[in-house]
Design brief:
9 helices; alpha/beta; 8-stranded parallel β-sheet; 7-stranded mixed β-sheet; 33% helix; binds nicotinamide-adenine-dinucleotide; 15 strands; 24% strand
Length: 323
């Protein structure tokens, strides 16, 4: 038989029907493996065809999940001007035993969902369990998937949404309130989506030089924040108020620092592998201010891709292509 691979379009990947609960569980299992030092993930090499744009190669191997592969993903902050998505790309899943490619799939759905799930894993260790009010700054793809993931772990009551584009925030509020049955209001000023919130998610564009909108004194004692867009939204003096600043991978954060990002962030308390395995403590007091600045790891993608592939096989979704 000639060798073949399964091609899964964006619609195919979504049609597979993996739930956010399953994705969060897969990421937590992966972070446990990472914490135990049983994974392989070289830093992301990338090319940068435009300022603040990237196309990154993200390879990873997770033996316990029998998963190996690479994501080739681009982020173009100005794509909205062309009516194109910020994030696009493809993922190749390989058979770890033979190296042969098993599948090529669109990576937009995985990127959206696994990033939200990584916020949820961090929140499980760093946020108060009784969090009810969430502030979302940046009402795009990530603003949506992060809220979807947080809902799995917390009994949320209220969401306050801010976007520099007021129309984007209005659409978000309308859509999320219907989808999740939550009270979602639009903030006229960014401070309203930070002060008074138990959880804050920032998900605007990633910028080498932060726009630093969030000022000291806004982020409440006892709150948790997920910085999906790195430190772009935060004034360095606001970050300095935090008790525990965590990330998903220290080596990658150091790499980013080396190439000019994260010039003024607090000392790193722990990575998610250390939190999940209990090597470092998560939240210890109700009044701590905690942050997870997850960079987005190839390991996140490779924790989810085999589940997509297996479910697609079961449900006969996708198109077979000759190798
Ligand atoms: N850390 C990770 O793992 C990870 C993974 C995927 C995406 N991201 C990042 O998350 C961010 C959001 O991605 P997305 O797919 O949701 O994009 P998106 O385009 O869907 O949403 C971005 C939102 O930011 C708003 N925005 C635009 N310019 C702004 C500015 N100057 N200041 C504040 N807000 C502004 C836009 O109006 C839009 O609503 C990007 O920075 C992306 O690179 C991070």
């Amino acid at each position: 038989m000639s060798e073949r691979l399964l091609y899964l379009s964006q619609a195919d990947v979504a049609a597979v029907g993996l739930t956010m609960e399953e994705i969060i569980a897969a990421l937590e299992a992966m972070f446990r493996e990472k914490g135990e030092g049983r994974v392989e993930m070289p830093p992301k090499p990338g090319v940068h065809p435009l300022p603040d744009a990237f196309i990154h190669a993200m390879p990873a191997f997770i033996p316990a999940l029998n998963s190996a592969g690479v994501k080739w993903v681009s982020g173009y902050p100005d794509n909205y001007r062309r009516n194109l998505p910020y994030i696009s790309g493809l993922l190749i899943l390989n058979d770890p035993q033979t190296g042969l490619p098993l599948a090529v799939m669109d990576c937009v759905w995985i990127t959206a969902k696994r990033t939200g799930a990584a916020t949820a894993v961090a929140a499980r260790y760093l946020a108060r369990p009784d969090c009810q009010v969430v502030g979302i700054l940046g009402c795009g793809v990530q603003g949506r998937s992060n809220l979807e993931a947080l809902r799995v772990l917390f009994l949320l009551k209220r969401v306050i949404a801010y976007d520099v584009n007021a129309e984007a925030a209005r659409r978000y509020a309308e859509e999320m309130s219907v989808r999740f049955g939550l009270e979602v209001s639009v903030a006229a000023h960014p401070q309203e989506a930070v002060s008074g919130c138990d959880i804050v998610v920032t998900a605007g564009p990633i910028l080498r030089v932060p726009h630093a909108t969030i000022q000291p004194g806004w982020f409440e004692q006892g709150a948790f924040a997920s910085l999906v867009d790195f430190d772009s939204y935060w004034h360095p003096d606001a970050l300095a108020e935090v008790d525990k600043f965590c990330t998903d991978d220290v080596a990658q954060l150091e790499h980013y620092r080396h190439v000019g990002y994260f010039q003024r962030i607090p000392a790193i308390h722990a990575d998610l592998g250390e939190l999940v395995t209990g090597r470092k403590p998560g939240r210890e007091r109700a009044d701590e201010r905690t942050i997870a600045c997850n960079l987005g790891l190839a390991l996140d993608d490779m924790a989810v891709a085999p589940l997509i592939y297996e479910r697609a096989l079961e449900r006969r979704i996708g198109t077979w292509l000759p190798l």
